[in-house]
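Researcher: Let's try something more involved. This one mixes different molecule types, so please make sure each is placed in the same coordinate frame as the others.
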Amino acid sequence: MDDETATEILEATYRALCQHGYAALTVKDIAAEADRSKASIHYYYDSKENLFTEFLEFLYERFTAKITAIDGNTPREELESLLNAVLIDGRPTPDKSFRTVFLELQAQAPYNDTFRTQLAKFDAALFDQLQNIIVAGVEAGEFDDAVEPAVAAEFLVTTITGAHARHITTERSINRFNETVTRYAETHLLTDAPAEATR
Amino acid sequence: MDDETATEILEATYRALCQHGYAALTVKDIAAEADRSKASIHYYYDSKENLFTEFLEFLYERFTAKITAIDGNTPREELESLLNAVLIDGRPTPDKSFRTVFLELQAQAPYNDTFRTQLAKFDAALFDQLQNIIVAGVEAGEFDDAVEPAVAAEFLVTTITGAHARHITTERSINRFNETVTRYAETHLLTDAPAEATR
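Model: All components are placed in one shared frame. Result:
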């Protein structure tokens, strides 16, 4: 397979999804976005299922690259950087459209084994990265040693997932959720959080 | 309109949704579930949009009845009862199927003004009920007076929303999420939470 063309098709799938949503998406839309024929899409990906399996893998690689390429000299700064990576609108329009599509894909998971398997990897990657940072923070004494990293990471993944869903369904700004989650992390994880801000 | 028949159709819509999901649902499926003709469904609800507007209103009434009919002699017990109402599997199969459908409806919200408006009401009702309980708990001295009810309620709605989404996409038990959220509430809201459990 010509990898470059295959990747171009996945990038066109991303743009076509942002524009049309998952439910309404056709191979014709992807072909139009890639400036190719439907036949050539089918040549590279013999079924829509196969295309989506590869597409989710492509997204997963982008996602893990994003959540591991975080800045920070300390675990606290790394956590802030990670929350910014997952809860911020850098490029408002594509981010919001894509989060909308991602929620659609999540809602299809119960009906689609491939989606479910792939989406579970995103969830696990975010959990692992949060847990790694929290473990490092507790070891460095920057986070309270009563914090249980697995419990805190699990809680944060759940809250971040909820923030994404509510951002889409209620149209609240993602930045507002970022503040809420950051505030939780700052006041409940850090050692010696200021007393007036511990709740 | 014959209210009883109209309600029967909404109940049939609920069952048909649990069985087929939203994306695949047809008026024919609803008619089959209601043991009626397609024409009679159209007689009561002249469009699929109109049917779904009424259906979401019907669900909203059930939801508000569920979250206000909570037990408890104290705000703490009321909060526990509310978390049990929204995060427990009383009747495993229909609950899980329906939560799956609800996630599908949420994912359609950005494409559908009616859905978005109706779903925002569920979000607001849960927020209000949580906030009322937390205000009462702070006033009664049962919850720490440093707790800001609006902030804590907002955080809990986000986490509960995330718990529903992850329950569906990762197939984790809803009870596990209930434990996580209850633990958060117990350790971060209550006055004099045991020191070893405050994180």
